[in-house]
Amino acid sequence: MRIFSLLALVVLNGSVALAADLKAPFDFESTLVLPRGVRNPRFKALVTYMDEKFGGSGGAEPLGYRLNKNITWTDVAEGAGDEAKKAQLLGYIRNMGLSDGDSAGNSSGIVNTYANVKVPVLAIGVTNKFTLAVAVPIVHVEVNADTGLVRSDAAQSVISKLNQDDPDLAADSTRKLNDAVNSKLRRLGYQPIQSKTINNIGDIKAVGKYRIYENARNALAIKSEVTFPSGAAPNADEALDIPTGDGAFSVGAGLIADHWLDEAHAWRTNAYAGYIAQLPDHLERRLPISDTDSLSADKELLARDRGDIFYSGAAVQYDFRFGLNLSTGYSFQYQGPIHYGDGRFAAYRYRLLEANTGQALHAATVGLGFSTVEMYKRGAFKVPFQLNA
What we know:
Layout: E1 9-11, E2 14-16, E3 39-50, E4 52-54, E5 60-62, E6 70-72, H1 73-78, H2 83-95, E7 103-125, E8 130-135, E9 138-151, H3 153-165, H4 167-178, H5 180-188, E10 196-201, E11 204-214, E12 218-228, E13 250-260, E14 267-278, E15 281-286, E16 299-305, E17 309-319, E18 324-335, E19 339-340, H6 347-354, E20 359-371, H7 373-377, E21 386-388
Antiparallel strand pairs: 1-2, 3-7, 4-5, 6-7, 7-8, 7-9, 8-11, 9-10, 11-12, 12-13, 13-14, 14-17, 15-16, 16-19, 17-18, 18-20, 20-21
Helix pairs in contact: 3-4
């Protein structure tokens, strides 16, 4: 599954979000906690290549989809940055029987990203029933982007005639046509589309797990979490924005239940559910012009309510006595729509900003792991550690 808005990380067998969108999980919940005073450093890594994202209809679409736009002669003329040249070009195409809104061509965009996220996690058993962990995602993202233009037949005719009548205007118009996307972005105040490399930390997460009940076959634990806005927040001036965080705090709590099917604790079933409150904040956003054009010169600092997250899931795991474990599970996540407060522009533009922001995600996960924690508790291994794939 290739998802644009970045990744999922794991601490204490739970997810650590880098940004507000829902993430596909790649680990499993558990009521297991560390013995008092035991420290368990963990290191998780996720490497992924992405060239698609989920669109508003729920289907996959290329990352460069929004760069595929119809370019009108008005767009080309506006990119001139000089009123005299603008008037000269528009006057020329009108004399050829064309109108300002006629198509000069269609822009095209290709975007793909490579992400390498490393997550050092330090967990410590505060008591025999309570474990605390902190995870700090370290994010490396490489973005490869390119834009171009497929000229219309009318544009070919205009440029050919301009080359005969006014070579300087022809050269300037051709340059604006070939870089139509970035010309428009610069005019509206955005950073141009270009390849780049991002190195930053993500949102730091602290997670606590308290085992409230256990007997020979059952265990119950409460998990609490706090996410700190340490990553790079969304940037209204980036048309191709890759935030490593969401810019606001989140707090959450969940309940985890384990049931062992045999006395040897080899077969374990697991179920969990939880709720994450994404606290409101303020964020600078661009106001879309219409439902087909999200690029805009109008930006504003808005009150933002990101929508809370509900999650649940179940899994089955088999633990071998020598530490190897096999797992399979299903999870469901739902995030409510994002809401923005109104400002000085027309109300419908704020509703366009909120459109298609509610999300639901179903995921099936299969895992292979190795853990010495239980062997450490039995005195059969000197160091507690975990590996997961």
